[in-house]
Fold each of these.
Amino acid sequence: MANPVLVEVTRGGRVESRHRGAAVAVDAAGQIIFSKGDTSAPIFPRSAVKAMQALPLVESGAADAYGFGDREIALACSSHSGQPEHVALAAAMLKAAGRDADALECGCHWPFNMKVSTRMAASGGKLTTLHNNCSGKHAGFVCVACHLGHSPAGYINYDHPVQGLVRDALGDLTGAHYGVDTCGTDGCSIPTYAVPLPAVAHGFAKMTTGEGLAPARAKAARRIIEACMAEPFYVAGSKRACTRLMELAPGKVFAKTGAEGVFCAALPEQGVGVAVKCDDGATRAAEAMVAAVLALLVEDEALRDGLRAIAGHSISNWNGIETGHLRVTEALL
Amino acid sequence: MANPVLVEVTRGGRVESRHRGAAVAVDAAGQIIFSKGDTSAPIFPRSAVKAMQALPLVESGAADAYGFGDREIALACSSHSGQPEHVALAAAMLKAAGRDADALECGCHWPFNMKVSTRMAASGGKLTTLHNNCSGKHAGFVCVACHLGHSPAGYINYDHPVQGLVRDALGDLTGAHYGVDTCGTDGCSIPTYAVPLPAVAHGFAKMTTGEGLAPARAKAARRIIEACMAEPFYVAGSKRACTRLMELAPGKVFAKTGAEGVFCAALPEQGVGVAVKCDDGATRAAEAMVAAVLALLVEDEALRDGLRAIAGHSISNWNGIETGHLRVTEALL
């Protein structure tokens, strides 16, 4: 059974492309309050769970020991755009632990944003691991290892103590199974685990309310979510969906993208978590899906309008001529 | 009724993303010899029909008048990578008609390939319309206008004589209807028309055999297809799918990509045209689909192996670690 079409892209008044997917919203008690498509199939949440993966950074005391505030914690949860501020802060986090870019095991890639990359190249910038969109998360892992007295070398591996702590946190939050049998390798080389969409959404709901979590974990989880909402630029970057979603209503929306069409979000005031997966892995569709689901859940009218503007918008070509629209289907309206 | 899943992307041994679509192969008589999915729905073939859109360049005598050889004709059919060779040749084509980059109405964008763009930025390169992946096609349009004594200004518009010639050629080749009612605006601002997939495949089959075409058009069509196969680098660029597909067996495969998951191809020796459309618009899937359909049609074993290697391959992350595979499903095997 195919998942429903949740997003359409039009041209000249016709639907040119279609994105299928599944979407779910869950409260902190685990109750599903919205669901479309097959949400039982395990999916890799990828970078959308970086806020969960950042728990050991706070819980271990590393964040406090190294003097990290909201920005550093937000960057540890980020898939950042490689803008100069992101790169500098990742370097500063490593320096706090007495390390540098050489400690990062995420690999190198040019910032995905063409303007950022070409500006960097034009000014003679040299590509380093700090520019990897995951460098903040990896800097956090290095800090956890150093603070706990482990060698950071190999911190990306399944058997390294840091990944063990991450796995424990993920399991506690989502209630799902995390093991070698559900494990894949992420783009930045750390383990990523296939889990059902509602488990991920439930985990984010719990992060906002603390329900079912030990007090220390509840406190750390809340601190992470609040850090991201306070510093949305450090979770993504200029014009990015995560940043825009969190800037709509400061403190009211948490949002984090993941590769291959995953997007997670939370509404802390309502204690609700959201997770979507676009079947085909398209980011443009996942952004629309998560914004549309959030729009169905919020009561504030201005916020709802802002979410709807991200869930549906016109598309222009290189000359700025409108060629069509991206819109969610009735299933998400 | 959903189209079948034709391509899967795996991670850690699981399917992470799925691409649905339709694919068809048609001979020059219009007989469908392979078909998957709903091929009756009109689709925008986008840049995949640039070789058809280049017919007026040859038929008008402009190509001969300006001394264009295979490279210039191939570039007129290209969605090029903006590499220095492409940019220089587009400029030379315009110069032959006494024009320059200012005549191009395609808009500007950085070359899509990050290495090409960052190398260009690092060496102080300035972005011009010549870098637009469609600049070769647009240079061809400008040449047609100039050669026929029309002002090239507004050559991108539906009512300009050049677009009238393009429309006539498309209609003759595909047998489909081309009018304002089926018209959308392409990324480079020229009209693009929604037509059924088999009509496009049939048009490419006719381009290779000349069947049903006036002698002059048949000759021009064959010259265009041969120019592209002779100069595959000028149809796309380094490591690009069109280029790789045509390099597999020189003179035996024609291939051209289009935005939003369209890919067209032809096997001149068999007089067969192929057209695929990935429902969600993904290029990675369209590339696999068209290679897989071609692999089903060819008899040469080495060529078939080469096509299969494009239809299915491993995927590595930033550290070069294999994270999964892209593969076609049984529907295309």
Amino acid sequence: MHLTDLIMKEFLLKIFLFFLFTVSCLSQDIENKINLMPVPFQYELTGEKFRVDTSFSVSINGNKEERTYQAAQRMLLRLAGRTGIFLELPFVSLNDNQADMQIETKRIGEIKPGEDESYNLLVSENRIHLEAETDIGALRGIETFLQLLDSDDSGYFIHTINIKDKPRFQWRGLMIDACRHFMPVEVIKRNLDGMAAVKLNVFHWHLSEDQGFRVECKTFPKLHELGSDGDYYTQEQIKEVIKYADERGIRVMPEFDLPGHATSWLTAYPEFASAPGPYSIERNLGIFDPTFNPVKEETYEFFDKFFKEMADLFPDEYMHIGGDENNGKQWDANPEIQEFMKENNILDNHTLQSYFNSRLLEILTKYNKKMIGWDEIFHPDLPKNIVIQSWRGKESLVDAARLGFQGILSKDFYIDLNQSTVLHYLNDPLPEDIPLTEEEKKLVLGGEATMWSEFVSPENVDSRIWPRTAAIAERLWSLSSVKDTNDMYKRLGEVSFRLEELGLMHNKNYEMMLRRLSGNSDISPLKNFVDVIEPVKIYWRNRQRKHTQQSPLTRVVDASRPDAEVAREFRNYVDQFLSGDDNKLEEIKSFLQLWKNNHDELLKVIKKSPVLKEIESASKDLSTIAGIGLEALEYIISNHKQNQVWFTSHLELIKKAKEPRAQTEIMVVDTIEKLVNSVAKQ
Amino acid sequence: MHLTDLIMKEFLLKIFLFFLFTVSCLSQDIENKINLMPVPFQYELTGEKFRVDTSFSVSINGNKEERTYQAAQRMLLRLAGRTGIFLELPFVSLNDNQADMQIETKRIGEIKPGEDESYNLLVSENRIHLEAETDIGALRGIETFLQLLDSDDSGYFIHTINIKDKPRFQWRGLMIDACRHFMPVEVIKRNLDGMAAVKLNVFHWHLSEDQGFRVECKTFPKLHELGSDGDYYTQEQIKEVIKYADERGIRVMPEFDLPGHATSWLTAYPEFASAPGPYSIERNLGIFDPTFNPVKEETYEFFDKFFKEMADLFPDEYMHIGGDENNGKQWDANPEIQEFMKENNILDNHTLQSYFNSRLLEILTKYNKKMIGWDEIFHPDLPKNIVIQSWRGKESLVDAARLGFQGILSKDFYIDLNQSTVLHYLNDPLPEDIPLTEEEKKLVLGGEATMWSEFVSPENVDSRIWPRTAAIAERLWSLSSVKDTNDMYKRLGEVSFRLEELGLMHNKNYEMMLRRLSGNSDISPLKNFVDVIEPVKIYWRNRQRKHTQQSPLTRVVDASRPDAEVAREFRNYVDQFLSGDDNKLEEIKSFLQLWKNNHDELLKVIKKSPVLKEIESASKDLSTIAGIGLEALEYIISNHKQNQVWFTSHLELIKKAKEPRAQTEIMVVDTIEKLVNSVAKQ
């Protein structure tokens, strides 16, 4: 049945009123069973079931619009894939008002910031209506629809629900650094699918770095020929990615990082550097000197031609010019540059860089692009249509917004730093106490998760991005009031599982990497251990062991995953126990028992697989402290008091277990320490 | 150290003599530890170890030849990946005679049939020499080298060895059907890597079918626009694949299947059909009527332009024109065609097809391509430079060879039929008793595994190809005397494990598919069951349940794998036990116990995951017969005789368990039946 607009509006009004005035009479059970992520703007579960069987059918009303049609077609494939149902009508039909699911959009959306992404989804027992202003909204609604699939004894069904949804922020991004380690097209594509599944809409593609220039450049072919080790995207591949993203309602914003982080460019064209060459692709990780020469006119002639070509290749409104971490050393040492600064009354390198940026801005404007860059590009003299991407923090956004500049937040969305999901989840770009007016707040456009690739390969990059980025996606889409972390984790587990159907490898490559590390032995002992460790956080990894671009990323640290689920589960159990609820006591005991006995088993594997030697002492420590945990547990239960000697000696062993080994840390140490500290003191 | 040719020759002669006259004095242990597959032409283990540590270095001597250089570079990456070693020299150097591994080739090989692929690999305690006539030979040697990596308590090492290797057959192929189900570029690429790892050298790309036309065609764009559902390879992608294959020493031979299997072509250009259109892409699986009209001159004008474009796109010497399974119905029913046959004294459809082929041959010859096709294209009048690909069997090859035609074998290399590895492994294209002269034997060029894609998706295609195709690769590379199946299976397990590092998903997608089927529950009960089942063989699947191109390929049958390893292991244990050796008795018991208890656990998962309903009765049967197996085992051990009633009732239950369910069959039934039949009779 096709509802006219009028009926629909009235209907939605009723839903809205219902939503406002009723306290849900549904059982908590259903509420717990649905796993919407990001949480919609408004929704109301109506407690019935729309049954999905072989007769399930979908129609798009109006013109056959490719983006909606293809997305609906993929939806049918995923639905059939999950349920094993042989659909009688496996193709989406057009204007079939008998179809179970009716999809209707008013217009074709544009892939640009601020486009309407809202949708209404109404699932009743017999019919499903998805309506949206734009096809992009329909895409978002389709993803929500798929999250409503559930099953019971009688088969598969969709929870009945009324949803009115729209994003809180217009800029919800994921950056992937394809430079420190190259990420082939299929890595990008599967992550675009993951992004679409959680309603992210900006793919920020970091394409140039000291360690590699990753785009085929026809005007200056030496850039990719000499700057990439052969690992670059052809222009055809870039078009393919842009098309793929477009089909999923995602912008593709390229970043060419300038004037620093430029060694790979200068390897090809040393004449534009601020110090004499030759240069070669940087193999180390960090911040390096090579920087473009901002006082040479030839530099800007080069960039004019370069950005002309790139502006043509990338249709997005924005061009990201990087701008971060120019250490200024080459500028300080170059007399010509110093002379220029004196002549032009440029007092510091930051101002010189602003001059450089203003020249780039001229070029970008000429080619119809708006400029975006990292914090460092911010300068009050620049025009107001630029965007500041803040890696430094919300203060930068506040400062910029007060002067009328737009910004997006990336600080604390640095998913390469292996921090907890909660940290990212609670990182609101516009917290309630932000000192901005309502008008200024509008200048904070959203945020981006950043996947820097110093320590990731195509094999494990997915496990750094997912599932944590789904929580960031929720932060950027859902209301600020959505912030129950327990509920987030529950839904995150389901999203993570479902992301696999899109080809993402965060789950499946874990055991694959453990198999390789175990040398084709049984992986259980290694898995028991790696399940409770995490890579060291922030920038500790390279401090503990110097890596280059060529260092293998196949070691235990690379298999281990941020926000280790088992460690988190154990922590929750122990917290519950220590708060007086001993429902999970058996689980706590069996975890500790498992770890206590694990070292002997793992040792056998280590003997056969020298690459594991580096975790031997940590594995032993895990066994030791698990034993201590068991002991503490017994004392707590029997209320057996211990003397200072017991505490001192045991806490010493626990302290030892906290030492990072093989650039990883054991994530259950603190929890076991908590157990020890809960033993009564004599 | 760079050996001069003379010293090298003398040296090789010594090795050869040593090989001929000595009985290996090495322990069987080392022999068992190395896992070369395919087995080299000649090799001799010398029992020492070349230690691999951070100082390991590689040099290519002579010019920097891209193919060798890139392959050596990938080798270093794989070596570092497996060992976690931070190499001090992570890049291959040129003409560094101090490097540990010296690679030397005489000339750049051509990617064409019959090119020299031989190599010599000499690993001593301190130095490694890889020498080859062509860079392609060096590539083959590099793969062998990587298979020699092993480890002990002190770290990683390469087994010292002298190898002189070359292939038995020049044509060692894998065909992938990208039509029934489209296989994206990344699927093709990872399988090319797998092919290179086991020294296959022909990728046969099946690109047109009733169900899809998969190549962008610039001359006749409707072919891909209307014939592919949008799932086709752009010409850029095809070039990318050809380059990728070239870098790995692999030919890319396209197949355009004609004149039958042509529905997708005729959907776009119905005017060339033998019966009036319109046509639409075929969604069913099987053999269909639509066939090109061989008596219309326009047909050949069309093919002239078509093959001109494709001859340009695909550099291989050969163009495969399919030619199979033309059912002739449209020809029989078309008066114009019948008239033409009468006029030209063409007595049957086979001869008419030969006429069609001879016209195509003219076109191909004009564009410098040789013709290859399936059995049906064989006709004594065709010129002798065509190749017959035999799906019918060795008799066809014999018939063809006697008339001077070249052939390759595919019968019994049909890996889509889910048969055992042994069947493929023992399928020698030139068995000793083949009734051919030595000269005629030379016309049998090799063989090809064929991965038809009616029932595979990008998710599970790898598990149909690998690891079984590695055994086929050995059949085509190694001597006919290499045919110990136990030894093959031992090495196959290692190869299968190592193929994962190339991105192949035969292992990791197994558990992913089980996770989806279990609805994110613990997969153990489902895994215990699926570990011992296999998809039904040959063409039974579609007979048991009608599938279309759109049917989901995510069910239990799709997760289950051919030649189920656990079932094979159990069979071996039982055979050993029944032959009087009870070393594996405990293993047998615990398998049976596991299966006996599994159904109750699996039932809980089935209740939550309706897609599993279809295996409920089979899972119950497995439990039942496992119980019977335990009973039988007890009776055998205690020599307890049973009466006819016991046998009849139990064999009845076993018979029931043999019934395929959900298009799968339980592979331990026969083995348990064997146990029952080994119980003493009263």
